[in-house]
Structures are given as C-alpha cells and as structure tokens.
C-alpha cells in the first residue's frame, strides 16, 4: 500500500547561529538556515557581505567563532572529516597546481576523498566525460585558460558524488556556452538529490537555476525565500532594496 503522507525532505545542511569575525570585523553574524536534498539555494550579497566566509565555513576551511553546523544530521565541527566525504567545494579561486595534469588533479582529489583503484578510475572517466574535459585530460593545469581551470575545479568538486555542492561564483570566467552547460549540470545534480549552494553576483543565474535565495548584508541573513523563475524583477527589487537600505521592505510589501 502506498502512503498518502509525503515523505519529509531530507535535511542535508543545518546552520545554527553561525558567526565569524575576520580582520576585526563581523564577517558573518548569527546565520541560521536549513537546506534539503535537491534544493538549489542562491547566495547573494554585495561585495564583502560575507558569502565566501559563509561558504568557507560550510566547506570546513574556516572554523566559526560560534554556532553549529550539521551535515546529514552529524555534528560537522566535531567531525571535520565529514566535509571531505560529503561536500564538493569550488572555491572562488579554484586552487590548481600548475605542474599537475587534469588527470593528476582528479586522482589527487579522489584519493583525498577515499576513492582508489577501479572506483577512482571510473569516477575520473565519468566526470571527464560529463564536463567534456577529454581533450584537456593530459594537459598541465598551468597552461589551462581561466575558464578551463574553473571546469577542472568543478570536476574536482563533483568527482565523489557529494551530498552537498558548494559553488562560489562558479560562472567566473566561463563563456556563454559553458554558463549554459553549468546550468544544466546544476539542474542534473539537483534532480539526483544533491543539495547545492551557489554564491554569485549574477542575479540571472539565481533566477535560472535556484529554487531558493538567501541574501546576506553585512554578515547577516536579510532574506530567505523562494525564487520565481518567471519573475526576475521581484528578485532584483529585493536584492537592491537590501543592498541600498540593508533591509527588504520591498519584499515585505510585495
Ligand atoms: N582572508 C581574509 N582575511 C581577512 N578578512 C577577510 C578575508 N576574506 C574576507 N575578509 C573580510 O570578511 C568580510 C566578508 O568577506 P567575504 O569575502 O566573505 O564577502 P563576500 O560576500 O564573499 O564578498 P565578494 O562578493 O567581494 O567576494 C569582509 O569584511 C572582508 O574584508
């Protein structure tokens, strides 16, 4: 017999009162939110709003001063190894080692995440095909263009099928064809149940692929709501109201 009660969505990420100071300033303040499997959340905010600091804490690269993070229900700060296993992170500037080839990058990332032997080779082949990196597979990262490096960073983030994909300005340096391909990739990840957080300055990216948007201002969460793909103007109004005034009275009035 099938149940008529819909299954409750699986919580992948839970932030509870996250705060972090940087260079004497409050970079992120009392940030709480929950992200479910398959959700794609855009993270917006003006320069210095705290987006990268937030993503670095979620990816385990920066420890919060206070607050908690739970990943798949487990205390992430108590078990930092969870990040490697369950998170794929594309930082704002994807780190590459100039003297390693694309294949060697993927092998190194895979090993760090517990992939070895045939499983590693299969994962590497699949992601190289998916991101159409075959012509670049043997090339050294040092000779890749910025956009090609960005695709390598994406491949490293996706290699181990993470439960949570954290993308910091992933469309940086991508040409329009690659931006369209990135949108398709994000939708695919979401359909497969991966939760995605996407920090960007491009409001159109949020309208195109996100079902939810969070807006930070001076480190605080000022808006968290659904995205309506047919109403880009509503997102623009909310964003600019917060950017100019620090609050979202426009959104409340709508
Ligand atoms: N490496 C760092 N050392 C010291 N302070 C930092 C560092 N990185 C960021 N900050 C500070 O933390 C605050 C938040 O910056 P953050 O990079 O998180 O914002 P952002 O929203 O990602 O900005 P942008 O859109 O410009 O990338 C800012 O006041 C910034 O000056």
UniProtKB/TrEMBL annotation:
Superkingdom per UniProt: Bacteria
Q: ABC transporter domain: which residues?
A: 13-243
Query: Any idea what this protein is called?
Result: ABC transporter ATP-binding protein
Entries under CDD domains matching the protein = ABC_DR_subfamily_A
Q: Which InterPro entries match?
A: AAA+_ATPase, ABC_transporter-like_ATP-bd, ABC_transporter-like_CS, P-loop_NTPase
Sorted alphabetically, which Gene3D superfamilies does this protein's record hold? P-loop containing nucleotide triphosphate hydrolases
GO molecular function annotation: ATP binding; ATP hydrolysis activity
Question: Which SMART domains does the protein's record reference?
Answer: AAA (SM00382)
Family label? Belongs to the ABC transporter superfamily.
Pfam families annotated for this entry? ABC_tran (PF00005)
Please provide the record's keywords in A-Z order: ATP-binding, Nucleotide-binding, Transport
Source species: Rhodanobacter glycinis
